[in-house]
Amino acid sequence: KDVEKEREPHVYLSKEEVKEKIQSYNSSVTDKLKMTLNANGIYTGFIKVQMELCRPITVQSSQSQGRCAHSNNDTAFYLPDGCVNTLHISSTNTVREVIEALLKKFFVADNPAKFALYKRCHKEDQVYTCKLSDREHPLYLRLVAGPRTEMLSFVLREHETGEVMWEAFSIPELQNFLRILDKEENEQLQILKKRYAAYRDKLEEALGGVWKPG
């Protein structure tokens, strides 16, 4: 069950509590992705983010990287379901910075404002999904919850705005969407043609057996 749950109040930890939490966290880690506490009180670590995107993303080509987003060489495609990415971040990094880092890591040219980061929690045999505010700190949430992803995981999705606001997309993005839709439509048409051709062959074969002279 996937339901929305209001954000829980943020409880901040003292420096000593952070140190104890990190020691406990690292003792429970099984994938070597440990946290490190620096002398200035800032700590670094890893989070895993599952990509659950319904719409295609626009990826910059090697020719357009470093230039303006959405050049004619950019490509749009759907990410495979269940794609998980690991990021190394610090306790000062916000949700907005994590989203921007994810998109930059994979040369995604889409506007970061189109995406939102969610936390998924398991409580009492229920799954709760909650949208995080841009100013929350994912590594802090990871530390408090512990390293087990079944207790807390992060998910990147598009903003849930009901109907798609197509005017928010650039012309190259819309053109890429149309190309993808045309390709998918053609693929589905070919599948249907093959299915009905096979059905027609079977039907003709059956009719031939019925009316075959004795």
From TrEMBL:
The keyword Cytoplasm applies. One of its GO terms (biological process) is signal transduction. InterPro entries: RA_dom, RASSF1-6, SARAH_dom, Ubiquitin-like_domsf. Residues 71-161 form the Ras-associating domain. GO terms for molecular function: zinc ion binding. It is found in: Cytoplasm, Cytoskeleton. Pfam families: Nore1-SARAH (PF16517), RA (PF00788). GO terms for cellular component: cytoplasm; microtubule. Residues 163-210 form the SARAH domain. Keywords: Cytoplasm, Cytoskeleton, Metal-binding, Microtubule, Phosphoprotein, Zinc, Zinc-finger. It comes from the Eukaryota. PROSITE patterns: RA, SARAH. Its main location: cytoplasm. This is RASF3 protein. The gene is Rassf3.
